[in-house]
Amino acid sequence: MELRATMQRLAKADFLHGLGIAIGSQDVSFVHVAKRFVNVSLLSVKTTPLPEAGPERFEEFARVLGIFLQDMELTPDQVVLSLPRRAAYVSRLIVPETARDVLHDVIDYQSDRLLPIAKEDVYTDYVTFDVGTEEKRIEVTLFAFGRQEVDAYLATLQQAQLRPQTVTLSSVALTSVLAFCHASLQAPCLLVVQDDGWMELDSIGGKRLVASQVAPLAQNVTKVELDELLAQTLMRSFPGV
C-alpha cells in the first residue's frame, strides 16, 4: 500500500495540468499548460479585457474564468496567480550574514521603513541572495501587495473552487519564464514591459530578479528619453556593466 501511494504521488508530479492567471491593468490572461516528466506543453491561452476598477472588474473576472475552466474540461492540479507590478510595492535591503537566522524578524522590523503603507494592510514575501566575497552579506528583495485587492481575487477563485499554490508578481513570473526558455542566460538582462501607459523595468542577472521598477510612459516620449531611462536603470542594477 505504501509503495502504491508513493507511485501515485510520483505519477502526479510527473503529469499535471496547470492554470496560470495573469491579472493586468485592463485585462486578464489565462494559460493552460501540461507537464509530462520534463516536457511542458502550452495547450491554450486567452486574454480578455477587464474593467479598470469597481465591482464590475471582479464580476467580469469571475465570468471569463468560468468560461476558461469549462474549455479546459478538467480541474487544474496547480494554479498560479500573477498580479501586476503596479499593484505591488518592491523594496530592497542588505543585511549582514550573521542575521540569517533571524532574517524574518529583521524584515518584519524594517518593513515599516521600507513600505509606504502599514504592514498590517499588506501581504509580504521576499527572496534572498548572497552577495559579497570577503564580507558576506544577504540581499533581500521585499514584495508587498495590498490585502484588500488580493483577498478580492482569492475570493473569486475560491468561488470557482480554485486555491492558488502561488501568488506572485508579474516581474517574478516573467523572470521565471525567461530563465526557463533561455537555459544558458547568465549575462545581465533588462526586461522592458509596457502596460497601459506605464513601463515595467525588470533587471535580471544570473537567472534571478535583481530589481524591478515602474515608470510612467508619456505618449510623445522620445528615443533619447527612453535611452536615458534604460541607461540609468542598468547602472543602478548592474554597477560597472
Overview in brief:
The protein has helices spanning 2-14, 55-72, 103-114, 147-159, 170-181, 223-237; strands at 15-23, 27-36, 39-49, 78-83, 88-96, 122-131, 137-146, 166-169, 189-195, 198-205, 208-216. It is α+β, with helices and mostly antiparallel strands.
Descriptive notes:
- The protein contains six helices and eleven strands.
- By secondary structure, the chain is of the alpha+beta class.
- The protein has a five-stranded mixed β-sheet with strand order 3-2-1-4-8.
- Helix 2 (55-72) runs parallel beside helix 4.
- The longest helix is centred in the N-terminal third of the chain and has 18 residues, at 55-72.
Got a strand count? 11
Task: Please give the alpha-carbon distance between the first and last residues.
Answer: 57 Å
Low-confidence stretches: none
Average pLDDT figure: 82
Order of helices and strands: HEEEHEEHEEHEHEEEH
Number of helices: 6
Layout of helices and strands, plus pairs?
Layout: H1 2-14, E1 15-23, E2 27-36, E3 39-49, H2 55-72, E4 78-83, E5 88-96, H3 103-114, E6 122-131, E7 137-146, H4 147-159, E8 166-169, H5 170-181, E9 189-195, E10 198-205, E11 208-216, H6 223-237
Parallel strand pairs: 1-4, 4-8
Antiparallel strand pairs: 1-2, 2-3, 5-7, 6-7, 9-10, 10-11
Helix pairs in contact: 2-4
List keywords for this structure.
five-stranded mixed sheet, 39% strand, 241 residues, alpha+beta, 34% helix, single chain, globular
